[in-house]
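Researcher: I'm comparing several assemblies side by side, and this is the next one on my list. It has 753 residues spread over two chains. Same procedure as the others: predict the full complex and return the structure.
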Amino acid sequence: MDKMINLKINGRQIRARSGQTVLEAAKTAGIDIPSLCHHPAITPHGACRICLVEIERQRTLQPACTFPVTEGMRVETESPKVVEERKFVLQMLFSERNHYCMFCEMSGDCELQALAYRYGMDRWTYQNPYPKIPVDGTRKYFIMDHNRCILCRRCIRACGELAANNTLGVKFRGARTMISADMDTPFGESTCVACGTCLQVCPTGALIDRKSAYAGREAQVERTKSVCMFCSVGCGTEIITRSGRVLRVEGEWEEHNKGVLCVAGRFEPVYDNRARIKTPLVKKNGELVSATWDEAMGIIASRLKTTKGNKVGAWTTCKTLNLTMSEFVAVFGGKLDANVGVLEPTLAEMELPVGGSLTDLVSSDSILVIGADPLSDHRVLGYHIKRARAKGASVLLVSDHHNGNAMSRFADRQFTYEELPRAIRMIQGTASPSVVYGAGTGQKAAEQLGILKRKAHFIPVFPATNGYHAKVLGLQSGLNSTPLEIAYLLLEDISPGEEVLQWAKKAKFLIVHTSYHGPITETADVILPSLLWSEQEGSIYNLEGKKAAVRKAVPLPEGLIPENEVLTQLAARL
Amino acid sequence: MSKVKVAMDWLAACAGCEMSVLDMDERLVQLLEKIELTSTPVTDLKHPPKEGVTVGILSGTVNNTTNLEVAKEMRERCKVLIAVGDCAVFGGIMTMRNFFDTDEALKRAYVETESTVDGIIPKSEELSKPIKACPVNQVVKVDIHLPGCPPSADAIYYVLTELLEGRIPVLSGENLKYD
């Protein structure tokens, strides 16, 4: 247990853990010290000086965010001297760039503005020279307005420490200091991976989300805690909505991803503009026409009732809620005794452990990545591998296509599958190894990896979101080749590839359960509309094998029914 | 007791602050029992009386030579000067012109505007000349700063009633806003 330390803050006796900063100790005791450059998820930096406090026997005021507590310390957080100094610091911060709030996107939610209000700033002591500074709009999803930047360096630290991408830094010195990417490259052309972590931590209006700009202040929006549905990492999210419309997505700090998301979870879903399916559709005289649920389900039920189970094939994406997947198995596998399966591999054939956590991963000293490309497909996992590497872990990559794997740039050693035993021997000798294995691992390699079962943390990388549950349910991937009378495809919002299209075309009667129009819906006989990620309510399993709650952030479009209910209603007609 | 004399004027402003003054609604009538508005930009008399007023209120940015004269005249003729609104307090949107030199700005406004045909830059001696845009306290001493774009009617009412009570208003909470 950590050593406890006694100190006094504002005359109050408090206890803090050794190693805590004054700011952390005060926060734990419920004493509010204002901060600006500080963010709990990243290393304290002491850049802005707003958190200055008076500490007995210290010659000058000290930043609470970086100053460690010591036994018998006496701290004053709002003494006249401290308040005067904070007002001065605020005046300095406002004096450098354009801090006219009236046309700023962040006005109302800005941490700098809130502090100016708190300390009653009604004028500027140092007239703002308001230099002409460019705006960098080269990135697709968010804008950097250097004019609003206070150089707190939260973005730089988030980029380096959380996303482990190290794109951001500063150029020039003093008042001319500017946040810059890759030694002065426009952000859009830099190594930025658009994970948006910097955007989420920016305290002012310097980083602006294009989609949700001017669309609602914190007091006007609702936040719904949910889970990202776009890969099997299952990052915790907050979906920010206003009047039933999704404005943006942020990373949840309390979940395993600790606030970090990737471009596929934070931005891309909000930009999806494929044509939505709003009602059930049935094919009449060669044309798909709108139908009621009753009509569509009636047609499906009558077809199913007159067809033998072995002539029916039902395949689902793994990217579906636990309840929906279970219901799918109960209806098609149980009741109808049809051929059932999933569209994406489930890693079920590999008898390898699961359950390794991102925390385990970051504290590993060696990481074996095999049959997976986490930086392309499971990016937040990839960022965590890079984080571990930044802390000294060695990354060993086993793959067939060294150049095609985004992780290869960050691999300390690369191996072919034939060389796997050598890689295994290398990490066997380390204290805390992790194995990240994906669908490309293969049976033979899985057997070889078995030797590490007791020692390493195993993190499975399922190719699709809820692959974990599909594995638990024993669903097999791979489409069957026997001719089918009826094919049912539960696709949610995915667009299946050519192989699935060809398979579906062979069936005499095709039912597609999906959210968007696409090549597959054109060949369907009945189309059932499904919900989107922001409308789902239920749970999925994340990469750590933990059940995570997916919550509905916006109301369902009129007439839509959750997929599991559709399946239940269908079963009742059989 | 005779009424306290108050004069208002504007510099380079959008009239938003004046709208907020009017937004005091019936409280304006109550105020007028205690104060006399000698001159405002929206009434017949524009200049503060030569014999002076107790309170002068200025909105807008000091943007040209006329604004400068108006600000100086108000300062000379009032005891307490209030700068009202973000433009008068901080400089406001007008300071964006400082990015360009005057010729460039005039050309953009009078010649290059998309809807202008054969535009000319007015050059009459009688016209005021643009100067570097700045807040009021850069050219004359300001006693009370009331920021806001515009400040709310409540904030303006608070400042005036505090002064009538003989107190220097201290802004906080909802009365202190920059937007």
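Model: For your comparison table: Residues 80-96 of chain A form the longest helix (17 residues).
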